[in-house]
Amino acid sequence: MSLERFINQAVSSWMSEEGPDSDIVLSSRIRLARNFENFKFPTLFSHEEAQSIILKIEEILRESNFTKFGQMELLKIDDIQPLQKRVLVEKHLISPNLAEDSPYGAVLLTENEEVSIMINEEDHIRIQCLFPGLQLTEALEAANEVDDWLESHIHFGFDEKHGYLTSCPTNVGTGLRASVMMHLPGLMLTQQINRIIPAINQLGLVVRGIYGEGSEALGNIFQISNQITLGKSEEDICRDLKGVVSQLISQERSAREALRKTSNIQLEDRVFRSYGVLSNCRIIETKEAAKCLSDVRLGIDMGYIDHLPKNILNELMILTQPGFLQQYAGGHLRANERDIRRAALIRERLKMESDKR
Questions:
Q1: pTM over 0.90
Q2: Closest Cα partner for 89 from 8, 12, 1?
Q3: What residues are designated binding site?
Q4: Which of 8, 108, 123, 335 holds its CA 20 to 30 A away from the CA of 202?
Q5: Binding-site entries for ATP
Q6: Angstrom distances, CA of residue 89 to CA of 212, 255, 348
Q7: What is the C-alpha to C-alpha distance for residues 197 and 184, in angstroms, rounded to an integer?
């Protein structure tokens, strides 16, 4: 398979499209946790209960014509090959927990992959909407539409005082987890991020790496999300998060301008050295690739590089992950083989853009 065809088949809309403030905000995600009324949570439910939940979702799909976000397809986790599950995790369409620890799990995906509905993960249902750029309000509206559709067929566990009942107490209430993925190289290079993260945490938000809890902030990419779901409305949660993100956007742009004024030639040199590495390397590890891709994306945003698309970081940060590399190669690769394949894929992708000039 050619790289261009592979990319066209593999890249989700949040990776390939631009949205508001997409020079800094890569994506916005809304996730709603829901559970069937009078069913045990997935940590305790029986095989029969798990199967009945999946059968109910299949019944809803057959009888209800909800196509606003495109045709939906139900995939059972046990029917998906390990490598394919890893790819779905790398695309942020399912969680590592669903891929590895949910024998009765499934996922409902739309064609453009803006909407994914995880079934029998930590909760019976987790609705996720993933949009490019800063589009929390739009993602929330989409998630609520999916939620309304499901709730017209399912009685969810709900308490008048506490709200939606969830497996983890931290999700009780709205069941909402809102998050924004941001590229913050300016704040990292000026070392401002070290004082900003504790301040964000004090506001009831949490800062994580590219794949959420426990993951590293590779390529200067951070996820900012809410911690509190009880006692606030969905709109309040999104508004508060958007307010903090807007301040971060402003601070990141100021940091970039400060670097341009005080260290312009050094920054330009850093950008083109990283571009040279990516264009010519024959072997490259994940961390080095992420660092170089971040530098190149910064160079694109600041006008040093004008022949590459802005979404190159979004795309290659995903396509160079282990699952994708092996999917492209057509089978299992050892670590050193992945490093060689990663370098070749990046070189070929950059050449594709050069050939378009």
A1: yes
A2: 12
A3: 27-31, 92, 126, 177-181, 208-213
A4: 123
A5: 27-31, 92, 126, 177-181, 208-213
A6: 11, 32, 24
A7: 12
